[in-house]
Amino acid sequence: MTEEIIIAGFGGQGVLSMGKIMAYSAMMQDMEVSWMPAYGPEMRGGTANVTVIISSERISSPIVKHFDTAIILNQQSLDKFEHAVKPGGVLIYDGNGITRHPERKDISIYRIDAAEEAGRTNMSKVFNMMVMGGFIKVRPLIKLENVLRGLKKSLPERYHSLIPLNEKALIRGEELIKEVHIV
Length: 183
What we know:
The protein is α/β, with parallel strands linked by helices. The protein has one domain (2-180): 3-Layer(aba) Sandwich (Pyruvate-ferredoxin Oxidoreductase, domain 3). The protein is 36% helix and 26% strand. It is built from six helices and seven strands, in the order E-H-E-E-E-H-E-E-H-H-H-H-E. Helix 1 (15-28) packs across helix 5 (144-154) and helix 5 (144-154) packs across helix 6 (163-176). The longest helix has 14 residues, at 15-28. The model has no long low-confidence stretch (mean pLDDT 90).
């Protein structure tokens, strides 16, 4: 089993940390992982993406052009990566700021309104974990308990007090995600 994932959005949305936590979580399950970030010099507000590969076998290269799953957090990333999802793959997107919604019929499409929910519930610091919760529900490759272990491994110790809030966000994300049917 190999899952090639792209996570893309604006800098500051937790794109890179979501990928890092995903990679650590898979490592907790004795999986092979690759984590390769890419971001512009602007960082906050500029575009950022990260490629994560989770596999039960050795990973020969971290360079991927077509993905099993795309997690998209802004319109620019949707425009860039929608067509990079392999037929039969999964596209998960946050609806905030999206003006042109995904249109492909050969992939499974899921919408999660995590940005809206994070703003409404004053949980903007853990918006990315809501999205991760949706991912875990749709693609149960990693277990929630390993995501929590991955959080402890990747977050600086001064932020460990936020782990319960992150867990709440993960569970809320599982509740929020909905499949979109393209007609």
